[in-house]
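Hey team,

Sharing the Universal stress protein run so nobody has to redo it. Sequence (274 residues) first:
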Amino acid sequence: MNDVLAYANGHDDWEAGFGFAARLAARLDGCLTGLNIFPSPAVPGGFYGATETFAAILESVRKAETAAYAAGAGFIAWAGRHGVRAAAWQVAEGNESNVLQRLGNRHDLLVMARDAHAADEHVRLGQILLHSGLPLVLLPPAWTRPPRFDCIALAWNGSAEALRAIHAARPLLRRARRIVVLRGELRDAYAEIGWLPPFDLVDYLACHGLEAELQGIAESGDAAGPALLEAAHLQRADLLVMGGYGRSRFSEWILGGATRHLLGHASLPLFLRH
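Structure output:
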């Protein structure tokens, strides 16, 4: 995880928008890119004066973008004071999922916070998670605590998404004092067309020098989300690693109930990977 991408709206308070990401990049001895995204101005129509209205909207957006660009030097200096080895500042215009997908091609991890006031926030986050191509560290709203890895919890149900998330989180797992596997109902390897090879997560972690404890989760389906959060808090976890489970392969933005619940209610940082 040498290249961390941090996304936040605004550039008035570096600590509030990017503090966690800066400290994480410093701990990983990685580079940090801060990002602001502005939506493309929409062209109004159907009423008198629409052209003038659009011109005013466009001018306002361009002024905001110019101010965001000018803030770059301040961001880079601020990140350096937090021990970040190298920092950069990006301003983009367009659909945020498309922008993050493009930047994901040269970054290893995305860090951002959940917006507590946005309508259908789980849909927006699901689109980012499924299309950015990056592991995502999702912070609760207004999260101000620094990164801690005294205990990292792993949500495990035997799925490919869960394994990809755990595999991607290994640089953070190596810094954990405790690793707890929250094991739910495992998927049956013989229920698929053809037999899937057997896999033992604890053995896999041990091969990478990581010792893990096991904790069973009785709930399944949509009830698994609240059960995972409760178990993570009982273990005093600083981070919960889980896969982003899509309910439908044909409508990927519709996430499964457990993922949807965690995206909306998690009160600790999540590490997510689809």
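The domain at 3-113 is CATH 3.40.50.620 (Rossmann fold).

Ping me if you want the raw files.
A.
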